[in-house]
What we know:
Layout: E1 3-7, E2 10-12, E3 18-25, E4 33-39, E5 46-52, E6 58-60, E7 68-73, E8 78-83, E9 92-98, E10 107-111
Parallel strand pairs: 2-10
Antiparallel strand pairs: 1-3, 3-8, 4-5, 4-9, 5-6, 7-8, 9-10
Amino acid sequence: xxxxxxxxxxxxxxxxxxxxxxxxxxxxxxxxxxxxxxxxxxxxxxxxxxxxxxxxxxxxxxxxxxxxxxxxxxxxxxxxxxxxxxxxxxxxxxxxxxxxxxxxxxxxxxxx
Length: 112
């Protein structure tokens, strides 16, 4: 069945880096759009970055440009979010979503 599975979250000190992965199962990955969202404790879910797996056009939230980068590997049906120079405010659950409306279960990122 269709499934998006995130991984790569964890606990890291401020200034550190993480690479999040989102692997799609039973999903038309190579000609689609995917995005990363995050939700901090007590806050609404917000968009972080997006990518077209066909044209490889990418978008990263203005406030996160320079620290976060999005990419995809069509052969692996996997999208990535590189998080660099992490800050306390980056703490939250990170979700991937495809344009067909399927969400992953989320992966926790904790910055201390």
